[in-house]
Amino acid sequence: MPRSLKEETALLLEDYFQHRAGSAALPCSPTAGTLRRAAAELERQERPFFRSCAPLARAEPREAAALLARVAAQLEADGGLNWGRLLALVVFAGTLAAALAERGCSDGPRCLAAHLAAYLAEERGEWLEAHGGWDGFCRFFGRPGLEAAEQSSTIGNAIVAAAAGIGMAGLAFLLVR
Amino acid sequence: MPGRTLRKAAPPAAPAEAAAECALELTRIGDRWDLRQRLLNLLAKLFRPGTWAARGHGERSGRGPWLCGFGRRGSTDIGR
């Protein structure tokens, strides 16, 4: 039975938040794996900013959820939503969730995941559906680097094959002479 | 100052300011990341082996692009 967008979003966010908090479990789906990878890459590139955000998470999860809601509303106020902004928002929420977990609020990550999933599925659901849902996210944040590597290995194979052919032809020419 | 009531510093405004600053920075980061990924996706599409082979060779000759999939697992007749 297919899951609703809200359930799927909540599962993906919980998976990412748990991973962010240091859980060694494997991703619950390929989409979760893509989210983990893309989010980790963004977080690594923008580490100083996300580190500076961690103190914003107070001990109370509801305060963090209210802050997240305010940030989400302002984030899309200027120019609407795009996949990059959505990913940045997820990483920000992950930062707050990790800070809450560090302060001993074990329920914080699940609470934030539920709030963000409700916001994304209910208030931004139309945008998500129009852009292919989480499959669209996977297509957008696929692995062009990997494809490029595959392509360069293809070209490499072709060059080796061509060099081997020329070598054999040269050897045959020398033997016949 | 005499005659003036002391006002508290404005802690309620602080979270709102912090949210506004965070949203602004996240917007910048998100837009940059979105553009970066769009460019990567475009480059990946342009340099995908099938793109030019299909246009230049396969479509002209009416046959499949010969280089596509060369060197990939399962592309040879020995089953590798």
Automatic annotation (TrEMBL), chain A:
Specify the species. Answer: Geospiza parvula
Name any one Pfam family assigned in the record: Bcl-2
The protein, known as = BCL2 like 10
Q: May I have one GO cellular component term?
A: mitochondrial outer membrane
Any single biological process term in GO:
regulation of apoptotic process
Q: What family does this chain come from, according to its entry?
A: Belongs to the Bcl-2 family.
Task: Tell me which UniProt keywords the record has, alphabetically.
Answer: Apoptosis, Membrane, Transmembrane, Transmembrane helix
Where in or outside the cell it occurs: the entry states: Endomembrane system
Looking up InterPro entries in the UniProt record yields: Bcl-2-like_sf (IPR036834), Bcl-2_BH1-3 (IPR046371), Bcl-2_fam (IPR026298), Bcl2-like (IPR002475), Bcl2_BH2_motif_CS (IPR020726)
Q: Which GO terms describe its molecular function?
A: BH domain binding
Q: Does the keyword Flavoprotein apply?
A: no
UniProtKB/TrEMBL annotation, chain B:
The record's annotation in InterPro entries points to:
Noxa (IPR024140)
GO BP annotations listed: DNA damage response; positive regulation of apoptotic process; release of cytochrome c from mitochondria
Please report the name of this protein according to its UniProt entry: Uncharacterized protein
Organism equals Geospiza parvula (Small tree-finch)
Lineage at the top is:
Eukaryota, Metazoa, Chordata, Craniata, Vertebrata
